[in-house]
Fold:
Amino acid sequence: MNPPRPPNDPGDSPSPPSPGASASPADVDDIDERDPGLAAERTSLAWTRTAISFAALGGVVLKVSVMPGLLIVLMAPLVWRLGTLSKHRASRPWLITVSIVFVAIMSLLVALISHGASHALRS
Structure:
């Protein structure tokens, strides 16, 4: 009588999965393929949090300076809308890139304008 072999014994060759069997979660590398429902929900929630952050930041900036604050508050619905676009839509990466560049340029302008205004107030 042969003694039982441990499960990790190299003598055991793994059997190939049957054609109708689904892959186990360890076999699937992409998280979207493992659980597409929750991945989409997490992404949607992340975009919503980002839009709320824009609105909150805009509210704080409004107390200091009206125009930059309004620009930031008005960006919140645009950011939220970008998050609701279909993942497979061809223009989505382009829209996200343009939005990021726009926010960066607006931030630079706000910083330069407020820096110049603070020097004018000190004089």
In short: The chain has one domain: 36-122.
